[in-house]
What does this fold into?
Amino acid sequence: GTGEKAFCSGADLLEVRDVADEGIQLPTAPDQDMMGVGKCEKPVIAAINGLAVGAGLELAICADIRLASETAWFGLPEVERGFLAGVAAVTLPRLMPIGAVMELMLTGSRMTAQDAYRLGLVQEVCAADSLMAAAMERAERMSRFSQSALWGTKQVIRHWRNRGLDEHHEYYKHVVNRVFSSGDVAEGLQAFAEKRAPEYNMDWPPNPAVKLP
It folds into this structure.
């Protein structure tokens, strides 16, 4: 990311609110690829120089190798706003222990770069002024190897990691429709716009298989 503050701060929630209100688009993940990173056939290194929040964290997990500066931190605050991080909900449990994923996604808490390294989300934590050098060292090392062998290695590893990914994403879409039926997403985004605490209805989303009175 540009500057020292953020790798990526995610979606503009005010814009998300506006398009949701107009019925143009709800905050759902169309697939598990972010900006072509997930489908790129070449090795991708994410140099995470600052906060990576919401879709910013999801962008990072689409990369193959993640390096973080000491001051970087991670968060998935979507539940605070009444919706869920679809790319993270499907992909992150394939990269980190399930309990750590639950903690991050259900509590909206922050994860430090050091904890991200301990849990395997990032492969190295660097001083801020050496982050890009560390990323370039890995890139230059890989550039000396057989490009076809790099391609094949990535394809085989990704095939294992992505096994069942499409089915998992289809289940996510089924669940997210039930979440949106609660109406909490509209309140969460409006509360964010008004800089106040949301007033959710505090009910579990209705089960479409059960006829409600």
About this structure: The CA atoms of residues 84 and 176 lie 7 Å apart. The longest strand covers residues 65-69. The chain has nine helices and seven strands. The radius of gyration is 19 Å.
